[in-house]
Amino acid sequence: MIRIHTTSNLSVGTNILLDENASHHLRNVLKTPLHSQIQLFNDVGQVCEGMIIELSRSVVTVKLTQALDINTESPLNVTLVQSVSRGDRMDYTLQKCVELGVNKIIPVISSRTVVRLDERKKTSRLRHWAGIVKHATEQSGRVKIAALEKVESLENWVNIPTAGEIIVLDPIAGTSLAKHTLKSTSVTIVAGPEGGFAKEELELIKRKKLSTSVSLGPRTLRSETAAVCAMSILQALWGDLA
Fold first, then answer.
1. Which residue ranges form the domains of the chain, and what is each CATH number?
2. For residue 220, which phi and psi values (nearest 5 degrees)?
3. Which terminus of the chain has fewer Cβ atoms in its 10 Å neighbourhood, N or C?
């Protein structure tokens, strides 16, 4: 079943005119024929099945035929604070973490971050990442799109109030995430850049956020892999990944 996100209110019996991006994706990428059954979902958790009743070069219209009660969200509420990595490495991290159930993503710039973004590039990257997040949500069967926050410096982020437990991924930490005792269903994972966080940054996060540092086992993982591994462990031990 093809799944498409929409900002429209979903009510059985109504017709939904899809936006330009969704229409292009259905018509030109997926080559979806007229009268195909698809699934629509929106930002407030409504999910409906419908039929494509109009498919032209400029318009795709879906008639909603059935409301669905779907809950694919994890009992964990996970925020990922991810140091920005280069190109498709960041895309990979965001895509897979969304598939694994992350609820919020905060990209940060730390001292060893290789990527340098001016304001124009930040806007462009955020637009690109938002597309990655949306498509991963559609593909994975989730009904809520993870919030994507603006790019912050690490120094700014540590001064932003954060609820729940904060876990920093550190390859030389004495305790592994698998042996950690989770104290809250609200969790923030903090993942460093390619060269890892500087010692001063780890101390700053611990001092400001009362964080706990954990490793992900005996091997050092790449920046784009670490958060995905951490999400998998969290969901397997305390979430809904079975």
1. 2-68 (2.40.240.20), 77-238 (3.40.1280.10)
2. -85, 120
3. C
Residue 155 identity? E
Per-residue pLDDT tens over the stretch 30-61? 999 999 999 999 988 899 999 999 999 889 99
Scan for tokens 């969901």, then name that residue: 235
- The string over 97-129, giving b where at least 16 C-beta atoms fall within 10 Å of a residue's C-beta and e elsewhere, is bbbbbbbebbbbbbeebebebeeeeeeebbeeb
- How many Å apart are CA 185 and CA 234, to the nearest integer? 10
Beta carbons of 112 and 196 less than 8 angstroms apart: yes
What is the distance between the alpha carbons of residues 198 and 43, in angstroms, rounded to a whole number? 38
Encode pLDDT of 107-158 as tens digits: 999 999 988 888 999 999 999 999 999 999 999 999 999 999 999 999 999 9
**Two structure tokens written together for 241:** 């990944």
Hunting for tokens 């690490």 — which residue is that?
154
Q: How far apart are CA 9 and CA 15, in angstroms?
A: 10
Please give the model's pTM, rounded to 2 decimal places.
0.91
Q: Which of 162, 218, 207, 208 is nearest to 189 (CA)?
A: 162
Per residue in 161-200, pLDDT tens? 999 999 999 999 989 999 999 999 999 999 999 889 999 9
